[in-house]
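Lab meeting notes turned into a lecture example. A postdoc, R.K., suggested we walk through two folding results consecutively so the class can see how the record format repeats. The first protein's sequence and structure tokens come next.
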Amino acid sequence: MSSPIDQRLREGSLEAPTRHPLDWQDPGFYNRKSLLTEMERVFDICHGCRRCFSLCQAFPGLFDAIDESDTMEIDGITEQVYWDVTDHCYLCDMCFMTKCPYVPPHEWNVDFPHLMLRAKAVKFRERRVRRRDKILTSTDTVGRLAGIPVVVDVVNAVNRSRAGRKVLQKTLGVHPGAKLPQYHNPSFRKSFRPGSVADAEATTATRGKAALFATCYGNFNNPQTLKDLVAVLEHNKIPVTLVGKEVCCGMPKLELGDLAAVEKAKQVNVPALLNMVNDGWDIVAPIPSCVLMFKQELPLMYPDDASVQKLGQAIFDPFEYLALRHKDGKLNTQFKNTLGTVAYHVPCHLRVQNIGLKTRDILSLVPDTKLEVIERCSGHDGTYAVKQEYHEASMKICRPVVNRVRQAKPDHYASDCPMAGDQIASGLNDGSEATAPITLLRHAYGV
């Protein structure tokens, strides 16, 4: 009788994938020669497997380059192909989470997204990053400047006009067809006024009062969704406040490879958020990427920092939070309005959190509501879809999502990620707009 197969040698596993800490403070992390050696090793494994060909542009770009080379093997491509693949990876994590059979604990130890993150960090340190990319990822600075009274009207007008978009295309390389977010004055943080609700009522997993990490996007670009979130929480008798101080979560800079900027943001956010946690508040943030930053990326960057690890356990996606309350019978399920058919897109950075489809579960409680769930990447990534050189690729990635929405013929289509919602709206190109799931829930409550 043959001996059992070593789990480390099997292709695929029933075990949960292991995510190793990111050794970004080791000088060797930035050694270009060792990086390229590791990229060659992993790309050769990917070439032999090819399960990820349909996820994004990084993999078909790699495979096409190999197939068009003289040797049709990894040794036939140039170094430039390595950097092209890096630029097309926007760290959605779907290859690691859903496709790759060689992730740890497999002995081949393939973590493609973190390898691409390392490559981006090397590229950034070598000053091979465009000024455009630095500006687009400076969300706090851009939001504050664009939100100045009078200036906000000019910025929004430029973003909507054909002439203005040509200027942005020429000066910053922003694709003229990419949908850009509006800016608002006042910002959410300036306009927030807490309501009067009952005392906090804890459950097994929540303490019953929520401090909002508004996020750059929620604060400057999408305050209405945050207002809807506050209304839903307060309707469920959950006291709401704002975190005393916040800056960008750091995800845009992480995706750029600017890890020093990530650390700078961490030094502001973690103490401020942890103060709220220590005062008995749960942290709730409306953007999946921001929640993921605190739940996964910072804990992997700072595995020995107890504050980071504690915060990672205390921050919640809004529907995760409501689902935990519902589990203990503390969710208001008295709905006044139905939603009909909802085409619901699950963002990649929500799927990576491994919390299940909580948005689907809560919206499904609304009577006479049908959820058409779409678990596929929208291709937006925050900045990838607006760049001149990547916009068409991003829309191609989104096409299956758009087709699913069309087929569903929904009364509403929604995504927890507002940028993914905009991407879907661009693909539909019929004048419709995505609706935030929390806005749909507020409507169902009739608040």
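The second example is placed directly after the first for contrast:
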Amino acid sequence: MKKSTIKRLAALGLAGLMTAGALAGCSGGSGDSGSAADSGSASKAGDASKGKVYYLNFKPEQDKAWQSLAKKYTKETGVEVSVVTAAEGTYEQTLTSEMAKDEAPTLFQVNGPVGLKKWEEFCMNLQDLDIYKELTSTDYALKSGEDVKGIAYVIESYGIIYNKTLLTKYCKSDFASVKKIEDINSFAKLKTVADEIQANKDKLGVKGAFTSAGMDSSSDWRFKTHLANLPIYFEYQEDKISDTDAIKGTYLDNYKDIWDLYITDSTCKKTELASKTGEEAETEFIKGDAVFFQNGSWEYSAVTEGGLKDKDLGMLPIYIGAGDEAKQGLCTGTENYWCINDNASDDDKAATADFINWCVTSETGTAAMADEMSFVIPFKKAKESANIFVKIDKELTAAGKTPVSWNFTTMPSEEWKDGVGAALTQYAAGTAKWDAVKKAFVDGWKTEKEKAAEE
């Protein structure tokens, strides 16, 4: 995408879609091992000490932690680091707007091959950088030919988070057909449990089995992207492929089954979902209004800060009645690749490379990413996370469960996701049939893939 194109898009009103926090500090010293001074400049043509960093952050839930870490880096090195966090669901629009400015981000994110195709001409080759050498596997590098255009900075898992205390209460009740949590190992079992919780919600003291499946932009990504990954994954597995220009929709009936469960055994009416937010679902779970909450390891900080303890928390795979469910693990992978803006000055590129290398090698950086952000980072000096959901993923994998890979990085466009999301919302509200979801999923996929091929 050329800068002229970006400016044209920005002129259409895409600016101003962000929440910002700009940080600058004074120089100072630190006894931190693996300090920034030792991190090694990545852009040999530039002087990192004369540069500055502008990070356009993708994750609103980690904004506070990034602001704090940026301040610490500035205090240690004297290098200015500004962090701007895009509002939930607006990253692409915000990136388009910010890249049109003279002071564009020096560090940004793409979600995988599809995102890279859109932004590749802005992505510096990272192959000679210190951070690339710190990866535990080159599989975490996003490449174009031999060039390394992006580096994954976090590996995450998602599934169905559950309140262990409430679910145990269900299992011990006289109306429960399933008597042990570990026996919930298929869609059929999950549906039985959810249906029985919903039918006896007053006895359990909850408002529903599942938190509200909100389709506000702060929440709809959980279903039009993360949940939609499941039918894509199983189709790819069956057809032994990793991408396609024409999705068949083999498992869309399974997608319907799990979506029906979410919106029926819920804390709210189906007609209310269009305006329900991610924060509302989070609050419902923290307050104990619901037993189940589809979300990921990134939610750990929020739910524990809300008062829940590790002993209260668990995570199930998202069962949809496909594949070998007894051997299914959590959905584990990444769509988070750091890219350095190749159009930035050499000094700014050097400063940015040093900053991210410090984040994944220093005690301060690795502790912040593990403890404050609850990240599992794919780098040699990573600190083990205390995140209970990360531990569950490891336990399931060690027990022989197969993690479900993240295939939504092959989704053709944001427009495709929006089309699926709109159809899901209309179906839930009763204003459209499931065929509308199938059409958005299958026909929309083909249309958007063709558009991408023409660009």
